[in-house]
Amino acid sequence: MSNSFRQSVSNYHLDHLQYLETEAIHIMREVAGEFERPAILFSGGKDSICLLRLAEKAFRPSDIPMPFLNVDTGHHFPELNEFRDRRAAQLGAKLIVRKVEDAIASGIATPAPNEISRNRLQIPTLLAAVEEFRFDCLIGGARRDEEKARAKERFFSFRDAFGQWDPKNQRPEIWNLYNTRVNAGEHMRAFPISNWTEMDVWEYIKREKLEVPSIYYTHSRSCVRRGGQWLPVTDLLPPKPNEEVRELNVRVRTIGDIISTGMIESPADDVDDILAEVAAARVTERGSRADDKASEAAMEDRKKQGYF
Asked: What does the alpha-carbon distance between residue 167 and residue 275 come to, in Å, rounded to a whole number?
């Protein structure tokens, strides 16, 4: 075997991240080819940031052929919304924002008595957006390593005419062949980075030199200890009379409602520091989300109703 032939063969060898990237780009292009009105769910969080880079690689130099959709609970970190708007503008993409506050005002979403978190109220808000724009596929950044319900997902997750997910009614995905057929009113959720881990995401962010919201890095924040975790003190989450407010150097691992996103004490101020922390972590990233900790079946229950 000649040296030139050996070199040409080695050029086709993919490392771990390249394989995951290629797999995800394939799913992106499947969505673009099979659906008429797809959209990308873009929160501004680290997973959806990777989705946008994958979309760039899948479709550039053409425009990304689908809008970005965000469900704004009204309880987002301000840093997250600023990043979301700026990144969409940089990519020249259409950003559609649908607010839970507007859904409540119009009767689409109805909060329960004394319900503070708006995570549940994202469900009717999202499903109303699907109906409004007649989306037939939503691309999301869920990963199977996050928690038990998401581990049941496939690349293409079928949703019925009510937007509901039945883990026992999903389609086989053999030899990278996907059944993407949907009837009127039904839609699909596609998860290109299903096989990625939290470590893969940060390795990809490092390799691609991707910007992420500042709250992923260490910063000073007033926090209270509640439910076994540090929660940020805000107007939405004031301290209780018996709680001590502490000023800590913290960061987030995963971002949800500002009232339920746990902060971790951390000195990590760059991606290499975060990679070291993730390698040493013994709790999943969603273990710092109070809304997920409330019940082991919380995520699966919400997904069955139409959650991301």
From this structure: 32
- Number of Cβ within 10 Å of residue 274's Cβ equals 24
Q: Give the CA angle between residues 251, 41, 104 to the nearest 5°.
A: 90
| Contacts for 3-11: CB closer than 8 Å, 24+ residues apart | none
Contact 135, 39 (CB under 8 A): yes
Host domain of residue 96: 14-201+297-305
How many other C-beta atoms can be found within 10 angstroms of the C-beta atom of residue 100?
24
Q: Which comes out higher in pLDDT, residue 284 or 179?
A: 179
Cross-strand bridge partners of residue 222: 247
Do both 117 and 166 map to the same domain? yes
Do 73 and 169 fall into the same domain? Answer: yes
Q: Taking the mean position of all CA atoms in its chain, how far away is CA 69?
A: 12
Within this chain, do residues 143 and 232 fall inside the same structural domain, yes or no? Answer: no
Nearest Cα to Cα of residue 28 among 181, 157, 193, 260: 193
**How many Å from the N-terminal Cα to the C-terminal Cα in the chain?**
51
DSSP E strands in 82-213: the ranges are 95-99, 137-139, 156-159, 187-190
- The mean of the pLDDT values for the chain is 87
Give the tens place of pLDDT for each residue, 239-291: 999 999 999 999 999 888 888 899 999 999 999 999 999 998 877 665 555 55
| Tens-digit pLDDT profile for residues 26-46 | 999 999 999 999 999 999 999
Predicted TM-score (pTM) of this structure: 0.87
Q: Do 126 and 239 fall into the same domain?
A: no
More confident residue, 119 or 139: 139
* Domains: count for the chain: 2
- Asked if residue 114 and residue 252 are part of one domain, the reply reads no
